[in-house]
Write a structure and sequence with these properties.
about 375 residues; 2 domains; seven-stranded parallel beta sheet; three-stranded parallel beta sheet; 13 helices
């Protein structure tokens, strides 16, 4: 079914990579609530079909497009199919990722290559496909799902952290170029904290115990709300969670101290107390079977809201309120100050004092 421009087209057309699970799946649901038409990109058709059903139940429309984002031709073909079936793309969200939990000394060149091809180059391929369509129309937004790890790397995730650093550098270059060209196409990056997603059930690991996100952990719906909000607001970067803010700021001021701190806590913080199944499948090269949904195993520990995110999203209003409050109390302080009481002169006060002097003079004349 094709949707053309004009009165028939009322909702946003959105593309989400990594749409079948985790943050991508939660983001798809959040856009669907707003009635969006969504192109669903990921490798696993079974999970994509499940996501499509959720979209339709929530009032949106979806197009299932099994895609490996590491292949630029597949990404370009998917973008063309979205525009043919759903209409011009308004929002492109890059989420897809893979990772390996392992010390650097045990990593292989192929593992680094694969993580980079999916987690970094997948974003590049998606961005190029989006720009090809958005730039001639001079509108649209590309949202990159980043991480606090783009600023502060941690042990055991060198490939993933390297990819996130690359995404940060790529985004900043692209943003400057769009500004130079006077383009109205926007790019923003949402920096994540630890999130309760299924990736910890299927990432490749060489560690003895089951992988986990480093607490504090947030539910993927928190991130999804931030992404959908970013689609309608011109924000250069949106950081989610106090832990992400602390990591970013800490790396600016005490990077050496963090090196030692993470060497001390970083290994245990990324593993539970349970031994990992040595035969468990991983999704580095092939998708893992089964519909995992958006959540991982850490619902009990995960936070459903972020006060920091709420304050961040509405910081303009808080700044305006703060200025108004400061002005109000400042004006009251000036009016109530002893200096003003001693030295201020009002017309009515001056008139009363003049009348008093005249009466005193008249009495003396008598």
């Amino acid at each position: 079914m094709s949707v053309r421009n004009g009165a028939e087209r009322k909702s946003k057309v959105v593309v989400v990579t990594g749409a079948s699970a985790g943050v991508g799946r939660a983001t798809v649901r959040e856009f669907a609530k707003a009635g969006a038409s969504i192109g669903l990109l990921a490798r696993n058709r079974e999970r994509l079909e499940s996501a499509r059903q959720e979209v339709e139940e929530l009032g949106g429309r979806a197009l299932v497009l099994p895609t490996d984002v590491a292949d630029p031709d597949q990404v370009e073909a998917a973008a063309a199919q979205v525009e043919e079936a759903l209409g011009p793309i308004d929002v492109w969200v890059n989420v897809a990722m893979v990772s390996v939990l392992s010390p650097v000394k045990e990593m292989t060149p192929d593992e680094y290559r694969r993580v980079t091809e999916v987690t970094y180059l997948g974003y590049v391929h998606g961005t190029l496909a989006a720009l090809k369509r958005m730039l001639p129309r001079d509108r649209g937004i590309i949202i990159h799902v980043g991480s606090a790890l783009a600023y502060r790397s941690i042990p055991l995730q060198s490939a993933y952290c390297g990819a996130k650093h690359a995404i940060q550098g790529f985004t900043e270059s692209l943003r400057s170029e769009l500004i130079h060209d006077g383009s109205r196409v926007r790019v923003t990056i949402v920096q994540l904290p630890a999130v309760n997603t299924p990736q910890f059930n299927w990432i490749k690991t060489r560690m003895p115990r089951h992988p986990q996100p480093v607490p504090p952990i947030y539910q993927p719906e928190v991130i999804a709300r931030a992404i959908v909000w970013s689609a309608d607001h011109d924000r250069r970067e949106l950081t989610v969670g106090v832990s992400a803010v602390k990591a970013i700021i800490g790396d600016k001021f005490i990077p050496g101290m963090l090196d030692h701190y993470l060497a001390w806590i970083g290994y245990n913080a990324q593993q539970t107390d349970q031994p990992v199944d040595p035969n468990r499948p991983n999704n580095l090269y092939e998708s893992v079977a089964g519909d995992y949904g958006a959540h991982g195993e850490f619902d009990r520990q995960a936070r459903r809201v972020s006060v920091q995110l709420w304050l961040n999203m509405y910081r303009g209003w808080f700044a305006l309120f703060g200025v108004g409050l400061l002005a109000t109390f400042g004006w009251r302080y000036i009016n109530a100050s002893p200096f003003r009481t001693r030295h201020s002169r009002t017309p009515r006060g001056d008139e009363r004092r003049a009348s008093s002097f005249r009466r005193e003079g008249a009495l003396q004349d008598r």
